[in-house]
Amino acid sequence: MTQAVGIARAHTNIALIKYWGKRDQELFLPMNSSLSLTLDAFYTDTKVIFDDTYTADSFSLNGKEQSEKEIQKISRFLDLFREYIGEGRFARVESLNFVPTAAGLASSASAFAALALASADALKLNMTPQELSTFARRGSGSSTRSLFGGFVQWDMGTGSADSMAYPIDDADWDIGMLVLAVDTKEKKIASRVGMEHTVQTSPFYPAWLETTKEDLSAIKTAILAKDFETLGQITEHNGMKMHATTLSANPPFTYWTADSLLAQEAVRQVREDLHLQVYMTMDAGPNVKVLCRASDMERLVQALSAYLPAEKIIKSLPGPAASILSQEDWQASHQKFSERI
Ligand code: DP6
């Protein structure tokens, strides 16, 4: 029996300049470059075992065996690695998602980043994290960015080999993020489907692409200058523009619910009342994420609890890059997971 084992942890990330649209569906090549903040509060731990006695791939998530459909997604992803080095063995994948259910955050970014790093570790692939991000990309675009900590850019690239992510800044300058988890139900329109429909039908899409280029260059200047106000203003504007493309798609749709609008209103009110630098962004779901100063987080939570239940407000600081875990770390992770449910 030959066995190859790899274990890794990757944190989730929230885009400040959104990835919205693919120019190649198969290769997950994006229409635009994007930039995100990795969060420490939410992560996925994954163990992969390639074993020549296995007769098929299998996948368990949070201790539950997954359906054939979920296994197929994992298999297709592992095939990229198997084809790359001529590996014939099937694999067992076990993942634990440390994303509070209440956060309602999609976990595909941390999931594929953790699986990519665990696979590279198991198969002893000699790759830089940047190169590895081109593999992670094929599982889910946003996972490219979860291989790195702090502020991270994903370059659209000219082709598959250079559409990769890299770190911009470690975000250790009084940065925080709140997730206002207004609704934790599964999203109705997957980002993959929503972005495709938007690219094809929204007359605003070309304007989105054009102005996002400018946003990206301006936000990078703001990050390097540690100019939080400009960083926040660009983040809020870019997110709103992404959502304007869904409202202008045909037929139109939106990820916002009535509760999202109430949460947005609460953020605006608190910003005005407390004169705090707080900026919001939203993804392919109803929850609102608030970029703020880490040092303002407690005051902010208190002020926002006048508008929504305190247990729906989840705090996070910037998170680190993905990392390889030991067998002891994996056991500790299981222990932690069992204690939280
Ligand atoms: C709105 O990475 O989930 O969160 O590549 O099709 O898996 P696929 O899409 P995904 O899309 C993320 C969209 C977004 C913006 C972002 O994270 O940049």
Automatic annotation (TrEMBL):
Pfam families: MDD_C, MVD-like_N. GO terms for biological process: isopentenyl diphosphate biosynthetic process, mevalonate pathway. Signal peptide: none annotated. GO terms for cellular component: cytosol. Keywords: ATP-binding, Lipid biosynthesis, Lipid metabolism, Lyase, Nucleotide-binding. Its EC number is 4.1.1.33. Residues 10-165 form the Diphosphomevalonate decarboxylase-like N-terminal domain. Belongs to the diphosphomevalonate decarboxylase family. NCBIfam families: mevDPdecarb. This is diphosphomevalonate decarboxylase. The lineage of its organism: Bacteria, Bacillati, Bacillota, Bacilli, Lactobacillales.
